[in-house]
Write a structure and sequence with these properties.
The chain is an alpha/beta fold. The chain has 16 helices and 14 strands. An eight-stranded parallel β-sheet has the order 7-6-5-14-13-12-10-8. The protein is globular, with a radius of gyration of 24 Å.
């Protein structure tokens, strides 16, 4: 076991009155809420890319992060050492899951064969650490956006060789995820989109993307991988327009190409806001379609127009998120995955603990508040009564398909006009939520 955090024995639950910055105030893994423990409701996951590979760099300056265990080299031994430190951190934090891209955990080699060999060498360490700690892989994925070969996309590239390379890379990433017992596998189209339509055959690119995903489904069956496939929506960055722009666009694509039975969505808060939506909106869209699978927990800065990937601390955000999750049956294969990074100014190793503790506590509070709102029942009853006209009479006939335009015209000729609308009472409902927060 690594000893990068030797002064931290483990993060414990101490309750709301605790002043200890290295203790949970609200996340009590064993506490039961509704029908499950907090641990099982939330299924917290730590991301490898931001937490263990993020250097704190930005377009205006080099990295600031102090990571004494990392010698800065692109060597396999350094990657293996980093993996052991990662598991020390996750074990002491008490996170049951983690997630990674292939190129996060192992260095890319000079060719595909060398890259695969490097990945295998680090996977051996990941397997050892998973066995030692009991921490599981939430999902794996392949980085199909960083290398210059993906400048025009991966599955949607104008270059067939790039499509083939991406397929080979995903094949290996799927094998590794399967070997590590991953609960799922995520496809994020980092460069699956366009910067200008002047050089883009959109129909052909979408056909290629669908073909790529069908090939992945076929290979998943071939190797016996039982994990859930996810697509993660994002409207822009790094391209001007990405084909997986939001939940609705993803669902439309999956339905059009007969892929919906094989995929659910991995939704991210900051991606939702970039698309002009709230996280609650995206979760409702996915949930209504039976495609709500997992979430990337973060938030953006409302004053900035890009993907800042900050740790979530807003109790309103986590409450609304947990209301939606509980409404649609909670998480099964997915989790609350902290796709978030400490600020460039928060460069000491201990800041990694502060950030994750805050996010975990915020979601624990959101879970408790959402459960209390559901138990109280006033919010659900208000919504039920707002749609009461659909539960009987003409509303029930419309929903059942028994009333067409002729019948509806006859009904309204008899009634003369529509019944008067009731108030939506938005302010009343916002005040109701505030009672619990």
């Amino acid at each position: 076991m690594a000893t990068a955090f030797k002064n931290i024995s483990g993060i414990k639950y101490e309750g709301p009155k605790s002043k200890n910055p290295l203790a949970f105030k609200h996340y009590n893994p064993a506490q039961r809420v509704e029908n499950k423990t907090m641990r099982d409701h939330l299924r917290f996951s730590v991301v490898y890319w931001h937490t263990f590979r993020g250097a704190g760099s930005d377009p205006f300056g080099v990295g600031t992060a102090l990571r004494p265990w990392d010698d800065g080299s692109n060597s396999v031994p350094n990657a293996q050492r980093r993996a052991r430190v990662a598991f020390e951190f996750m074990e002491k934090l008490g996170a049951p899951f983690y997630a990674f891209h292939d190129r996060d955990v192992a260095p890319e080699g000079g060719n595909l064969r060398e890259s695969n060999r490097n990945l295998d060498a680090v996977v051996r360490v990941l397997k050892e650490e998973q066995k030692r700690t009991g921490i599981r892989l939430l999902w794996g994925t392949a980085n199909l956006f960083s290398n210059p070969r993906f400048a025009h996309g991966a599955a949607t590239s104008c270059n067939a060789d790039v499509f083939a390379f991406a397929a080979a890379q995903v094949k290996k990433a799927l094998e590794v995820t399967h070997e590590l017992g991953g609960a799922g596998y995520t496809f994020w189209g980092g460069r699956e989109g366009y910067s200008t339509l002047l050089n883009t055959d959109m129909k052909r690119e979408l056909d290629h993307l669908a073909r790529f995903l069908h090939l992945a489904v076929d290979y998943k069956k071939q190797i016996g991988f039982q994990g859930q496939f996810y697509i993660e929506p994002k409207p822009k960055e790094p391209t001007k327009h990405q084909y997986d722009s939001d939940a609705a666009a993803c669902l439309n694509f999956l339905r059009e190409y007969d892929l919906l039975p094989h995929f659910k969505l991995n939704l991210e808060t900051n991606h939702a806001t970039l698309a002009g939506h709230t996280m609650q909106h995206e979760m409702e869209v996915a949930g209504a379609a039976g495609a709500l699978g997992s979430i990337d927990a973060n938030t953006g800065d409302e004053l900035l127009g890009w993907d800042t990937d900050q740790f979530p601390t807003s109790i309103y955000l986590t409450t609304h998120t947990m209301l939606a999750l509980l409404k649609y049956g909670g998480l099964s294969t997915g989790g609350v995955n902290f796709d978030a990074k400490v600020r460039r100014e928060s460069f000491e190793p201990i800041d990694l603990f502060h950030a994750h503790i805050g996010g975990m506590d915020a979601f624990a509070r959101g879970l408790k508040i959402a459960a209390a709102i559901r138990k109280d029942g006033r919010l659900a009853e208000f919504v039920k009564q707002r749609y009461a006209s659909w539960d009987s009479g003409i509303g029930a006939e419309i929903e059942s398909g028994r009333a067409g335009f002729n019948e509806l015209e006859t009904y309204m000729l008899k009634e003369g006009d529509a019944a008067r609308n009731a108030s939506g009472r938005q302010e009343f409902l916002e005040n109701l939520i505030n009672e619990f927060i």
